[in-house]
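re: ur msg from earlier - yeah i can do the 6-O-phosphono-alpha-D-glucopyranose complex, just paste it... oh wait u already did. ok heres what im feeding in:
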Amino acid sequence: MCGIIGYVGKMTNIQRVLIDGLKTLEYRGYDSAGLAYVDDGVKIIKCQGKISSLEEKIDESKQGKLGIAHTRWATHGGASDINSHPHRVGSVTLVHNGIIENYIDLKRLLEKEDYVFKTDTDTEVAVALLDYLKRKGLWNNLEVIREFAGYIKGSYAMGIIFDDELDTIYATRKDSPLIVGVGQAANLIASDVSAVLKFTKEYCLLDNYDVVKMTENEVEFYDKDLQNICKEKLEVNWNIEQAEKNGYEHFMLKEIHEEANILRDTINEYVDSLNSFVEKMPDLKKYNKIHIVACGSAMHAGIIGKYLFENQVGIETTVEVASEYRYKKVFYDDKTLVIVISQSGETADTIASLRKAKENNIDTLAIVNVVSSTIAREADQVLYIRAGMEIAVATTKAYVLQVAMLMLINLKMMIERDKITSRELNELLAILKKSPEYVEKVLKEEKKYFDIAEKIYRDNDIFFIGRGIDYAICMEGSLKIKEVSYIHSEAYQAGELKHGTISLIEDHTTVIAVMTDEELSLKTISNIKEVKARGADVILLTKKELDDNYEFVSDKIVLPKVNSYIIPFLAIIPLQLIAYQVARLRGCDIDKPRNLAKSVTVE
Ligand code: G6P
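and the outut:
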């Protein structure tokens, strides 16, 4: 949700430096982009469109060693040249990620002070406020930022250039992510570490209201009262290659193909021996109720968790969309555990839900990919998935690991509650260790999935049906299709489709049926027949044990014979690859689907 970067250092080709930095942040938003650099005063270049449009406008012969830049996902004010960042008012230039919620009140106040606004953005109000505070002449630039914080309701991560200190970048944050890269030859601010990797692997995190002041040679940190503070230096354990496609046509495809290896890394980290597994997983004995809270695909992973926890552990589990959970009446007791799931660790609604649980003194556990993200830092306990950098906006590999992590948590609870014999346990741990080999097997059938995609890519609608855990898989399969290919898609509990939506089934409507649950398979077959009788072309995703000569399906994907425990993360792989190929055949912008952003840091 908007990406920002600021650079001050020895390089003099500042426009190129900023553009390259923005490219690594483009997953955060891509409807407009802009940069401001210092070259005999502040110069701004900005425009609607992707970073490639901005790149066409830059003049690399112009020199500069300091600048700030922004890639936008519009919230206030449509995507247009004028609404793009940076915004400049008076003597202040600003890039901003977040939402100034009280911007209308502030705008009225500033209009009384003769400010005239040219854009529909909340950010122009923020920069006008900084200029207004500065013009009062009472404070230095640090103090202006401190005063500014007192006026604002909402969230912000900001990079600021003041005209009277053109060798310095100021930055501050509240509830929107911002890190500080500290290098030998450059200092940087960025929405995430991927943007600073080219210059340094060392970075510091900012807490809410912290202010940083940086020049080429020095970085100073201040807390909200402007006390000088020291920050711990962290080191990124990713490398720049992870941010490249390595021969794949798209990041989405590359990331799906990474699923076996990252699964190996994650499982090996938690399951080296039974004893260490028990120790590494949190103690969950005391809970009798679990709330899983997340957004998007992470929420779909949570639904798989719910089926596992309820069926195998016998613990009541609810799954809620974070944007609802944060505002609804929630019934907690002292044996409730809240599990939040988030790839980025920065999703605004998930953070708010986590904070709600904490305010109610409820224990929290986070499943997160990005190390030291806000959720990772604020949750009582964290289980990291080791997906590495995920760049495609539509998540694939992180989802698979989220499901795997929920399986590990499930196993831990089964052990704690004597729900599993030691023989069964050893078998499951062995199968989890071996699961990357099965992922590889499923990936090897790519051509088959691509052939199916070839048959359905011109469809207007694709329905998914399944029961139980298969329904949870359908939800994610359906989301993948609509996110990346823009084909209308819906997922239904197989038994529910007939209560209305079946009226949409016509001759040759595609229905993808997921049927991996042995206990429910006969029921699912009946539902497949119901849609078939209305003309649907059915693609069946099932597993070896349930495979039969189903003459009523048009295509069939059969997962290898394996302990059903790991079927959920195997089953999603063909669906991810079908969605990918459907989008590719339709000529969609796969890694950056329209209107989306990877990290949704606003409500
Ligand atoms: C965005 C992404 C989704 C993701 C969701 C939650 O909508 O496009 O792919 O599932 O946010 O993100 P999180 O980082 O919290 O997992």
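cool cool. The chain has a mean pLDDT of 94. ping me if u need the other ligands too
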